[in-house]
Amino acid sequence: MSFTTILHQAKSEYAYAYDENTLHLRLKTTKGKVQRVEVLALDPFNWIPRNDGSMIYDLDKKSIIRSAMEKEQVTEEYDCWFAEIGNQDSKRCKYCFLVEEDGKEFIVGCHDKMPYADNKEELYNLFNYYNYPYINEEDLYKAPAWVENTVWYQIFPERFCNGTPNDGRDVLEWGSEELDGALKKFGGNLEGIIQKLDYIQKMGFTGIYMTPIFESPSSHKYDTTDYFKVDPEFGDNETLGRLVEEAHKRGIRVMLDAVFNHCGYQHPFWQDVLKKGKDSEYYDCFYVLDESMPVFDGEIVDGLPQEVPRERLKYRTFAYTPAMPKWNTGNPKVRNYLMDAACYWVEQYHIDGWRLDVSNEVSHDFWREFRKRIKAVNSDVYILGENWDNSLPWLQGDQFDAVMNYEFAMPVWNYFKKDEKGSFIYAAKEFRNGVSKVLTSYPRHVARNMFNLLESHDTERILNRTNGDIEMAKLAYIFLFTFPGAPCVYYGGEIGMRGGEHSNRQCMIWDPKEQNQELSQFVREMIELRKNHDSFRTAQFQWLNQEETEECLMFKKIGKKETLYVFMQKEGEKHRYPVPLELRGRECVDCICKEKVFLGETFELNRNGYQMYLLPDFGQES
């Protein structure tokens, strides 16, 4: 057996504590090479005395628990095997694997891999067992229980709704101008969001995520001037308090956006550094690179620095943006200031979550302390990082509850978008491969709390990717609402708003005649299905595709009382596919028409067609 055939690492996404008494184990093997895998697990201190009267103890071989592993996912390179090892009352576990390849069994341990037939006693060599030394409760990953059942609605406040159109503010006519330029203002504010809470509730959303609302000169507010003050263009602190109160009355949670990687150029700490240089008490709150030079020597327009060549920047920033100096979060003054601000909004205004901007550029040490401070105020607060890549190091239970799941979004984007030659970037096979990688990148209980999205204020809208094809966009929304994690809809996505990467922050369309009511109704129905059926939310996701169904996406979600089956076809002609054997002749509920149906041997899908069925009492969620 080749050493490259096996992938496993203790205390990782391959081996983690699911709860106080349960371990989840994964093993990856080269695709199609392995026929069967068993895991052998035991408490390493299960020793019994010999019967010869001596004081010698031997391993109690009978205490070894043997569990068959199931094939969880398949990618182009690997088969991923999974097993749940329960009843770990002692909290200790050592384990190895018994792998069958081409009719031969192999012992797979942390040090050696060897044929079982020639080394049977090695099956009990604990020095070759992987080790999960102890399940410490304080190390467990725990997210707020409400998160996995939440359906989020992301709002860019400046462009959502102007609730005070006659207040005399100098703003552009709603929806009248091009969107380039961070200083263009249309008048959206918190009062407007309050006025639209009934709309948000009617759609079925149970969480609002707002991009930054604190004082800042820009429309996006990612250049904070005062972390303790709502920007006057949006209202005031009292307005936010009313928004949270009214949202909570409707069963809607509220999550704010915190920018702790950097601040705005007009922040008083930074202004003090610009004026006093090394003599400023805040000098070490930032990263000034050349003490002998002026901190900034470029052009200032309307109080804001203009872009300069990188070599002229004498301080660290977000990207190379001079208007966003980077905080030194290792500095105690900075650390206390930012964490005090975060706790202030939780304690005084009862917000339910923090989305953390550019979170992967801030130290793990800062986030560990941040979690302790926030959870001490309210353990039920959701902590969400803006990470675009694999984020397991932040999701060990000591920092974030979840991240924005762009790794989920990327295969979806590639599946529904065409390249310059007019071909889809991903075929169905490549899409399944990408999704399977995401599903095996995180522990199952982490996956259930991830923040899943198709679009955001930083990306192209999904309808742009589908080139305006509403029926294809529906398929993307089906996948969003059936995938493990908490789904999020970006404002306007539910009514068919389009926009490229640099035109994705449009004014919300409120005229019903200009909204796509068909898509809006579809999104409402999907939200309702997700709320009413745990199979839509479960982390147990399995592909069902065979060779003859290559271009059809077929998967099932195993819940506590039912299993959800989803079939969809992107583009193509009308086609008939074989019904999975486990469904043939079974009575199911059609999710679309809500009626009971009996499935035969085949089913038919139109172009951009889909079918969803619920089979009761067919599974057990894990």
How do you describe this structure in short?
With 622 residues, the protein is of the alpha+beta class. The protein contains 12 helices and 33 strands.
The Cα radius of gyration reads 27 Å
Content-based structural category? alpha+beta
Q: Quote the average pLDDT.
A: 94
Task: Please tell me the total number of domains.
Answer: 3
Which CATH class of the largest domain? Alpha Beta
Give the terminus-to-terminus CA distance: 31 Å
List the helices and strands and how they pair.
Elements: E1 6-7, E2 15-19, E3 22-30, E4 36-42, E5 47-49, E6 57-59, E7 65-68, E8 70-74, E9 78-85, E10 93-101, E11 104-108, E12 113-115, E13 130-132, E14 152-155, H1 190-195, H2 197-203, E15 207-210, E16 214-215, E17 226-230, H3 237-249, E18 253-258, H4 268-276, E19 300-301, E20 304-305, H5 332-349, E21 353-356, H6 364-377, E22 382-385, E23 402-403, H7 406-416, H8 428-439, H9 444-447, E24 451-453, H10 462-465, H11 470-482, E25 486-490, H12 517-532, E26 541-543, E27 552-558, E28 562-569, E29 575-578, E30 587-590, E31 596-598, E32 602-605, E33 609-616
Parallel strand pairs: 14-15, 14-25, 15-18, 18-21, 21-22, 22-23, 24-25
Antiparallel strand pairs: 1-3, 2-3, 3-9, 4-7, 4-10, 5-6, 8-9, 10-11, 10-13, 11-12, 16-17, 19-20, 26-27, 27-28, 28-33, 29-32, 30-31, 30-33
Helix pairs in contact: 5-6, 7-8, 11-12
